[in-house]
Structures are given as structure tokens and as C-alpha cells.
């Protein structure tokens, strides 16, 4: 037992599938119902980012800037300067993909209380192709002073992450997906920004994952278990501030570390873990992710398979790593 | 509120402060700073509803500087208005100073927004004005944008949005001084017909002589009566105004005067001051 309180039958074919962006949209409405200072701004993607649920209920606090992500970030900073809690939503490829400077200066350097919801992140966006599959956003966002970076694993966790972000008086980057994926965490699953969740205990190898790779890692661990390899699976939903304590504890316990994320291996969650390990307890490590490459069109599961981001891909690297012990 | 003579004297004081600050800092932007001294003076000593003793007063007019590199004029104006002691002006750009090379919100009282990368302030001004308009606040948003800054695509994103939301509580001054780092705006990237561009984007355009206190007061007064659309004041200004060897020279956009040049400049401004005092 880990205290993660995941759904009972994790790998049932009937497990409910929803997109993490839905969790953001629900939480935004929940927040706005309680707090009249919550505002939302979008750049022509209100429905895709699930901001339209807010817009329908609170039109007086909704701002539509059009296809203009630079202005999106700046206008949000201006609204926040009037003591509002502002959520901006767009596709991750364009915000922060296109407006890094505005996020850096108008939001972070200004000390603006703006939350950046970036949907459609990673290879998981699938058929839209490589231009829309941003794989560098975590790297950009975690390098910024003041910024908190959260990558929820499913719809329920995206809801909790959004609620938790609202309580912080600083910018928070929330990365979600369009793909409908298993909702395997529950309302009882704990969520605290900066505190990793142990989803599965194990002593032979530890897999740190974020976003959709958490569930894939749990599946991989199940397969590894059949081969008498017990993998711990940690949901590292917060990339910054990173949970040093949990990383070090499991690195020492398992002696080999694997990371898995829908992102370039340079600069993402795996890099963040490697930084922690280098400084606190150097440990043999491998990173599952994109290896300085663009992907292509295809559906999410096809792409995850081809690029090794699915359970089989994670299991394969885990086996190599375990054998090297 | 000050009378015209008092305003002109204050603009002269601010110009002298700018020169002393830049000489001391050994870097910074004199051209736009000197050129905008009259407009900043009229804003802070005649127009803005503000309280230097309470910089975050909730009902204050907001002033957003978009082209942050002309911050010497903002800092000198804020100090003369009483936001912080004037002696701090000489710490510009130095280690540990509240007067950062480009403005930082939260470090210096009276600075509403961090700026530096061009095009960003105007978006923030629009965001503030949307809140003011939606919540029927009595305060207005005033912003200053450089003409070269209009090269940035983001400014036009903001300009379009301001018209969409009919932000008649937003008054934006374009510092039309015709210079940018690499030369004249006509050479680098032509902006004309600028007034027609703003009109086509749904703004009310008022042109003014940006170094003439009476023209500035009149134009802002007119802007305050406009309803249903944002207002741009296209201010024809002379870069380096008040210092003959800097006037109209784009190479003084971002180069500080040395001590000798600074003394010459102060001498010239002192002569102007004496004329103002007797006039």
C-alpha cells in the first residue's frame, strides 16, 4: 500500500478515460464560483482548452484576445496587476512556445499572479504533427525564476493541480493533454504541489514519471513484476520545486533510476532529476523521452509506441537499466 | 496641479536630473528621456490622479511605461513627485540600486510594471483598462510607447484588442521622435501613415506637439472626453530636447554623456531655466 489511493482495478479495460484538460476546465469553474477575482483569458482556443465552461458562466471575467499569445501573457499581467487571479489558456506549442519573453518579463519579473494553462502538450497531441507537439516547454518554464511547474497525470490530478495553483501567489505552469487517458487517481489521492506521490512501491528500480507517462509506467511496472523485478513508480507531478527528498530516498533504495516523460530528454523532468541526483546521490540513470528529435503525425498510442513513450518502451529501458546494476 | 510656468520649470529640473543620472551611471538612454520630459511632467504634475505617499492607492490612475529604456525620465519624475528621495537618482544602474537599468516593479515605489523588452507594456495597459472598464472604475490607464517600439508585432495585437473592448479609459502616448537604435524610423522600418493606421485599428487619434506643455495639456484634456474607443496621442517630440548637441541625433538614443558633455548640457539647461524664471 502506498497511500496513493488509486482506482482499485488499475488496468481494467473499462477504466474511465478523460483528458487532463477537462480537469483544468472544471477546476476553473469551481474556483470562479467561489472567488469573484478569478479571471480567464484565452487566445482563440477557449473550447480546446476547456476555458469555455468558464466563459459561459462568467462572461464578465472572460477575455478573448484572439490568436495573439504574446498579448495573451501581457494582458493577463495587466489584469493581475489589478489584484485579480488570472488563468491564461492556449496550446502549449504557442504559450509558452511563442511567448516565452512575455512570460519571463510581464509575468515572472513583474511578480504577476498569472497561472499558465498549456494544453495539447507533447507528442500526445498526435495527428496535428510535430509543429504542434511541443517537447521543450518544461525546459523553458522550469528555468524561469518564480515559476512553479506542474504536469498532472490525469484529469482528476489536473483538477487538483489547478485548485492548488490558485492558492499560490505566484506564476504556475500547468501542462495538460487533449488525449483521453485513464483517470486512475481518485478524489482521495493526495495532491500537494512539490510533493511527489508514490504510486507503487518497489526495491529493484525506481521510475519517476509525469503526465501520461505515470500510467504507462504503472503498466510497465506490472510487466516487470512478472519478471520478478519490482519497480517503484513515483508520480513526479511537480517538476519545480522538485521533491528532492523523495528522489533521493528512492534512488538510494533502488540504486537505479529511470525517468519517463512526453518531452525532450534535455531540460525536462528527467534532467531535473539528474540534477538532483548529481548533487545529492549520484545514481545510475536512464531517461525515456524524445531524444532531440521531432515526431510526426499519427495517433497518440501509435506515436507513443514508435517513440518508446508507452509502457513497452518504458519497460524495455527499465530492463536494460536493471541488467546493468 | 501646477501652472504652465511651474510645469516648464519642473520639466527643466527633470532634464537636469536625467543628465546628472546618466553621467553618473555612464550608460543609459538620454534621447527619449529628454524628449519625453515635458509629457512626463504634465502627466505627473497636472493630469494623473495619484498619491506619491501611497503608490498602490487602489483608485489611482495607472501609468504604464512600455518602452522601459527611457526610465531615467520616469525615475526623475517620480523622485520630483515625491515617490522616493531625489538623492537615490544618482544610484541609477548601480549594484544594489532600486533604479534598475530597465524598470522593475516591486523594487521602486511608483513603478507599475517591469519593462524593457519592447511591446509588452502596452499589453499590460490594455489588461488594466479592461478591468477598469468592466468594473466601471473611475481611474484611467495612461501609457507611453516608443515609435520604434511599434515595430513589435505584439503592440498591434494589443492595439486591436483595445479597440475590440472600446477602452476609452486607455490613453496611450506614442513618442513620435523618429529615432530608434539603428537610425530613423523611416530608414529602419517606415511607420507612416501612423495616424491612419491607428484610425484603421479603431482608435481615436489626437496629434500633439510633445515638447509644448500647453499642447500636451490640451490634447490630454480632449482625450479624456472621448467615448467608446481608445485614444492615442501621437506626440511629436525632439529626441535629446533641451541639449543642443543631442537634439535630433539618433546616436544619442542609447549613449550616456561623459562628465564634460554633461557639464555642457547642464549649463545649457541652466540658461533655459533662467529665461523661464523671468518669462
Automatic annotation (TrEMBL), chain A:
EC number: 2.2.1.7
Annotated Transketolase-like pyrimidine-binding domain residues: 18-183
Biological process, per Gene Ontology: organic acid metabolic process; sulfur compound biosynthetic process
Family annotation (Gene3D superfamilies): 3.40.50.920, 3.40.50.970
A molecular function GO annotation: 1-deoxy-D-xylulose-5-phosphate synthase activity
Keyword Transmembrane in record: no
Protein name: 1-deoxy-D-xylulose-5-phosphate synthase
Taxonomic placement: Archaea, Candidatus Micrarchaeota, Candidatus Micrarchaeia, Candidatus Anstonellales, Candidatus Bilamarchaeaceae
UniProtKB/TrEMBL annotation, chain B:
Obligatory cofactor(s): thiamine diphosphate
Keywords linked to the UniProt accession: Thiamine pyrophosphate, Transferase
Pfam families the record matches: Transketolase_N
Transketolase N-terminal domain sequence ranges: 9-258
One annotated GO biological process: organic acid metabolic process
MF terms (GO), sorted A to Z: 1-deoxy-D-xylulose-5-phosphate synthase activity
Record flagged with keyword Transferase: yes
Origin: domain of life: Archaea
PANTHER family assigned to the protein according to its UniProt record, in alphabetical order: TRANSKETOLASE N-TERMINAL SECTION-RELATED
Similarity field: Belongs to the transketolase family.
Name this polypeptide is given: 1-deoxy-D-xylulose-5-phosphate synthase
Source species: Candidatus Bilamarchaeum dharawalense
Lineage: Archaea, Candidatus Micrarchaeota, Candidatus Micrarchaeia, Candidatus Anstonellales, Candidatus Bilamarchaeaceae
